[in-house]
Amino acid sequence: MIVETGHYALILALGIALVQSVLPLWGARTGDTRLMAVGISAALGTFLLIALAFGGLVAAYVTSDFSVLNVFENSHSQQPLIYKFTSAWGNHEGSMLLWVLILGLFGALVALLGHDLPPSLKATVLSVQAWVTVAFLLFILTTSNPFIRLMPPPIEGQDLNPILQDLGLAIHPPLLYLGYVGFSIAFSFAVAALIDGRVDAAWARWVRPWTLAAWVFLTLGIAMGSYWAYYELGWGGWWYWDPVENASFMPWLAGTALLHSALVMEKRAALKIWTILLAILTFSLSLMGTFLVRSGVLTSVHAFATDPTRGVFVLAILVVFIGGSLALFAARAGTLEAGGLFAPISREGALVFNNLFLTTATATVLVGTLYPLLLEVLNGAKISVGAPFFDLTFAPLMVPLLIAVPFGPLLAWKRGDLWAATQRLYVSAGVALAVIIVVLALEGGARVLSAFGFGLAAFLMLGSLTDLFFRAGLPRAGPSVAWLRFIGLPRSAFGTAIAHFGLGMTVLGIVAASAFQTELVTTVKPGDVLRSGGYEIRFEGMSKREGPNYSEEVAHFALSRGGVAAGTLEPTKRAYPARQMPTTESAIHTRLMSQLYLALGDSDSNGGAVVVRVWWKPLVTLIWLGAVVMGFGGMVSLADRRLRVGAPARRKAAKPARTEVGA
Amino acid sequence: MTRKQKRLFSIGGVMMVLAVAAGLVLTALSDSIAFFMSPTDIAEKAPSPSQRVRLGGLVEEGSVERGASQTVRFRITDTVQSVPVTFTGLLPDLFREGQGVVAEGTLSPDHVFVADSVLAKHDENYMPKEVEDDLKARGLWQHTGEPTASAPATPAPHVGAGA
């Protein structure tokens, strides 16, 4: 019954979304306020109905209702409750339902929080948002229905893929979707602006918090996915340039660019057309990512199932939305007036520099991701584009951008003084140089690139804080005055500094973990002692253990450091009988920010010997901590008074309301 | 600077970045991509030792030898030809004889494939796509990817709306 209710709710949601995609827009065009107001209740209704449908699916999972095909294929009665719960989106159908749930959520949030938006803009935005919702609801109902029943119902399910039986599944997909589906708002605003033929600084002020919020979630989602892959797959790597990873990374890069260009538009009313285009491109990349992951053109752990009709359907959605919005852009962009002028060396110039490099880098990732697919379609040749390609193309583009990051906030709007900014960065540059020299002295001339990487990270981290330092009036002002000025700085200044500092942390983690990681693969017998990262690792032997829905062989390692016991590590090999599938569970010991990582290989049946892989990964956790700090910076910036959702409009509404009513 | 000069300056800068990026992409595409080959492709035309290759096929039954160190030797076959492979490191969990794998590395002059990574499937239903296509093209494809015999057979799905 619950399942049928969910199914019915989803069909109803489609009906309401159809209404929402036409009436509010019609109202906005004809100036009918009652029709425009339909958008608000329709957006809330759509969201609630999708939530009901999603709840129905989750209920079927939690109660292990194997008469539902989707539950039968992806769950098992012996799974721990948390995994029964997360199994609901650990499959194609369920994850698409989560996708539209979040799409609906953002629509509802605009309806609820956007009471200061001009009604016609709000109505148009909600209609555009509904177009996307309609497309994906149709997709789910026709090709990926999670509510299909099985007759007769089987007794037991086929279990969730064991790789996905992890807490990561509870966190990674929702965060990631909040991120890249969140960019749909920027898209809807952009399309609405094109339909209206009007865009101004206020538009950017409404769009920026949404983009920033989506960006924060996407940053955390990608970082979480990376850390999950790192500990779960047992390969010790944290980024593989896998097409599916790229699918989430491209919207992140474009979204980062959008965040910065919206800033120019908000403050200086410049770059309007570019910002609109970027908003369209960012969500287009999200859609493309969905296509890549969901269509089955790629084989990966994310491609749960392959079904050609799904691929064609998502491709059609892709063509309609990207093609349609770009066509609209081509037709209407000319009607938008160009904004303020600025010198090449200025805050705006620095942000254009940022956009240029970020979008170019996005393009190289796009080429690397799509080229193998295109080549296969064109002449059947099968190639793989992996890390070497991206090391050669993406990395060189990032270096000038990262060097430029600390300069940006130090340049004035309109016309900046590069020389003055450079002088303020003397200390950071000096420290960076010292870091380079120290690394070279310790490690020898062969480490030029990694020494440079350390220097760059130091420059980024210190340089990001420089702006706060000088804005507080230091070093001239006295400490008490400086403190007062410091705490009085706008939150967005802190947000910028924190996010840029986090970026520096990530760079430091990447450089340290790639340059100084040590790896050891060896066979151990009980009593053997290995050495890695200053630890003595003693193999004590193997034992067997039973989990709720698996059995595992556990290797026991005792750690000590300089003769002092430092804990134990127990990497395991699990076998899941339901899917007859083995997995490797790595064991990780964290010391400060570095990690000792153990993964088991094959065990030798005679004599209790086992192959073990030991990595020492210095500062590796900074890679993800940096991302968390970046996300935190975004949140701090989001808490800025001027940026709070709705707040700017309220202030604005107080003044120009009189003039705008008539407009 | 006049407005015109400013504009030229900006456009020139943008062009330069794009040109550098395009150059990098083209160089990288010619040097650092790996072609997928089957054992038959390799038998027909051996790649040069500098060319990175993804070799895909099935792990030949009875061919896996584990040496004293962590070096593993096995043969990858497409049932017509087979190629000896050596790999040092940990094999993926689902690496088994008779299963589809993709090994990435180079062919040494003595025709032994030196792999630096070996990928097996992510779950029990998965066959590397290139291997599947290749086997299909040769008419050797048997769908071995069904859930194992112990799993219950899937009953016919039927839409439950209104039921």
Any overview of this molecule?
- The complex is a heterodimer of chains A (663) and B (163).
- Chain A has 663 residues and is of the alpha+beta class.
- Among the domains of chain A are: 1-165, no CATH class; 522-617, no CATH class.
- In chain A, 63% of the residues lie in helices and 12% in strands.
- Chain A has 21 helices and twelve strands.
- In chain A, strands 4, 5, 6, 7, 8 and 9 form a six-stranded antiparallel sheet that branches. Chain A has a four-stranded antiparallel sheet with strand order 3-12-11-10.
- In chain A, a hairpin with a 4-residue loop joins strand 5 (535-546) and strand 6.
- In chain A, helix 15 (426-443) runs antiparallel to helix 16 (448-471).
- The longest helix of chain A is centred in the middle third of the chain and has 33 residues, at 347-379.
- Chain A is globular.
- In chain A, 54% of the residues are buried.
- With 163 residues, chain B is an alpha+beta fold.
- Chain B has a domain at 35-137: Nucleic acid-binding proteins (OB fold (Dihydrolipoamide Acetyltransferase, E2P), Beta Barrel), CATH 2.40.50.
- Chain B is built from three helices and eight strands; from the N terminus they run H-E-H-E-E-E-E-E-E-H-E.
- Chain B has helices at residues 3-31, 39-44, 129-137, and strands at 33-37, 53-59, 65-66, 71-77, 82-88, 100-107, 113-119, 157-158.
- In chain B, strands 2-4-5-7-6 form a five-stranded mixed beta barrel.
- Chain B is elongated and about 75 Å long.
- The model of chain B is unreliable at 143-163 (pLDDT under 50).
- Classes of the chains: A alpha+beta (663), B alpha+beta (163).
- Chains A and B meet through helix 1, helix 3, strand 1, helix 12 and strand 2 of A and helix 1, strand 1, helix 3 and strand 8 of B.
- Chain B: This is Cytochrome c-type biogenesis protein CcmE.
- Chain B: It is found in: Cell inner membrane; Cell membrane.
- Chain B: Heme chaperone required for the biogenesis of c-type cytochromes. Transiently binds heme delivered by CcmC and transfers the heme to apo-cytochromes in a process facilitated by CcmF and CcmH.
- Chain B: InterPro entries: CcmE, CcmE-like_sf, NA-bd_OB-fold.
- Chain B: Residues 1-7 are cytoplasmic.
- Chain A: Belongs to the CcmF/CycK/Ccl1/NrfE/CcsA family.
